[in-house]
Amino acid sequence: MTSAPTHFLASIPSPDRGVWEIDLGVLTIPLRAYALCIIAGIIVAIWWGEKRFTARGGQPGVVIDVAVFAVPFGLVGGRLYHVATDYYRYFGPGKNPLNALRIWDGGLGIWGAIALGAVGAWIGCRRKGVPLPVFADAIAPGIVTAQAIGRIGNYFNQELYGGPTDLPWGLEIYRRVNEFGQDDPLGGVAVDHTLVDGSPVHPTFLYELIWNLLIALVVVLADRRFRLGHGRAFAIYVAGYTVGRGLIELMRTDPATMVAGLRINVWTSILLFAGAVVYFVLAAKRGPREDLSVLATDLGQSDDQTDDDPDKADKPDKADGESDDGAEKPDEAEADNANVVEDGDAAAKKTADTTADTDTTADAAADTDTDAPAEADRVREHDEAAVVPAGAAEKQAKKDTADRADD
Length: 407
What we know:
Layout: E1 11-12, E2 19-23, E3 28-32, H1 33-55, H2 62-85, H3 110-128, H4 132-157, E4 170-171, H5 204-226, H6 232-249, E5 258-259, E6 262-263, H7 264-283, H8 292-308, H9 310-314, H10 330-368, H11 373-406
Parallel strand pairs: 1-4
Antiparallel strand pairs: 2-3, 5-6
Helix pairs in contact: 1-2, 1-4, 2-3, 4-5, 4-6, 5-6, 6-7, 10-11
């Protein structure tokens, strides 16, 4: 008696399409799996980064605010890197340069996304008063997890795979055609599951997805165990990711720019790995992890002082007696002039009193000794000598008053 052979699934099937057309009657909206995966990855990265940032003492909402700058910069940087390294897809005979703008068709270079995204994050961090390394440490595992989610989009697009394999997890690649029966790997539909490109093939995007999740776990465990700070958690992410990316890149068979016999992304991985290791070692000398709660308290006190005295926040400190344009305040100048006038009046009054006293003394002397005219003359000469300086003092006081008023 002969038993029938048993067949097991020996490969992974691909989706029959990567784009669904949503008919709304007045218009049709293309729903692209690749774009949905990128969006889902961004949401996860922000959500996880926010939780890690607040757990480290940061203010809630900061990661979201910084992401407003980092995400657009990252998308532009990722596309620029892809177009620059895969320029032959968009430029040359028979190519349409405008296709470089079709980001929904796939093609985002992670290195460009990280580089330009870091510029956007730096702008956002400066606006929020948060050191960039602190933000990078908080967001690191979320970024590499977002990359893993994004690789699912490559699965729907049937891209980024390796050479033929007979392993049980080999990936089937189907021929897709559009409504006119023409080949359309991205926007078409697989109608008969015809295998192409020697499939089943190595699902290198799946290898990278798994590797990215492992790196996220390593970053979390290392950060928890050693309380990493000053960008060291981010450095572990970069170093770990580049190891896997460089090895997996060697397995891919899709066209790529070659430099000295190696794919350009292999060289990029080598350089970034070396840079991340050096940074990790040097950053250890900067001390323990930053205390975000203390930083938040300092920023809060600064904001409170600004809110309590908005004039000081908007205007520079001014010297006493100066107005906004640096001139002497009119009210204070008038007060000074009034004081000078009063001083002058007091001096004049004192002079008058002195004169009156002198006259009284002279009259008393005359009444007491009518036979001493010489003595009376000397008294009167003394009176005149006292009056003259007093009058001069009065004139000087009035002159000073006029000068101060002119000033």
